[in-house]
Amino acid sequence: MTVDADGSVTAVMVAIREAGPGDVLCVLGKDGAVIGEFLALECQRRNLAAVVVDGRIRDLAVLRDLDLPIFARGAVPHAAPPGSEGLIQEGVMLCGVDIKPGDWLVGDDDGIVCVTVGEATSVLEKAEATIASEDRLRQRMEAGELMFDILDESRDPGLAGL
Predict the structure, then answer these.
(1) CATH of span 2-111
(2) Is the pLDDT of residue 82 over 90?
(3) How far apart are alpha carbons 39 and 25 in whole angstroms?
(4) Between vectors from CA 127 to CA 122 and to CA 132, what angle results, nearest 5°?
(5) Domain boundaries, the chain
(6) How far apart are CA 55 and CA 35, in angstroms?
(7) What distance in Å separates the CA atoms of residue 96 and residue 106, rounded to the nearest whole number?
(8) What's the CA gap between 134 and 158, in Å, rounded?
């Protein structure tokens, strides 16, 4: 669920009302916080998968304790004002990445990756192969081998590219 908030918390409220379970709310914000305690609670109540804000949020102490992943550029103590209904489900440019409705976003403590629907299968296969390679590397290191010896491609072609 994409929303260009146009500096308004109203646009975010409209998008949350339209969002469904499993959606990732992707918000292009401006100066004020576009997500705070109550909007985040509503996102959680509606079973959204996550919230991604290219902008600011507030009420961090509460947001950290929610069972809802929230990614943002930073926090400010003041909310964005009510105003325009912005643009919803039209795609947004977040942190230099064009996010369109239907794209897949995967995030963790290191950041977020956006994958188009057409790329999802290929990216998933590559990610699973990387995880398998890293698991083999970890097992061998735990068994006492040196990482630099393991990465010699002639010893384990499956680890090439790590």
Answers:
(1) 3.50.30.40
(2) no
(3) 11
(4) 130
(5) 2-111, 121-159
(6) 9
(7) 16
(8) 10
At 15-42, the pLDDT tens digits run 999 999 999 999 999 889 999 999 999 9
Contacts of 135 (CB under 8 A, 6+ apart): none
Q: State the pairing for strand pair 2-4/87-88.
A: antiparallel
- Mean pLDDT of the residues in the chain: 90
Is 25 in contact with 16 (CB distance < 8 Å)?
yes
Q: Which residues contact 81 (CB under 8 A, 6 or more apart)?
A: 7, 8, 9, 32
pLDDT band of residue 62 (cuts 50, 70, 90) is: very high
Q: Which two tokens stand for residue 29?
A: 């914000």
β-sheet with 70-75: strand ranges across: 70-75, 50-57, 24-35, 2-4, 87-88
What's the pLDDT at 134?
92
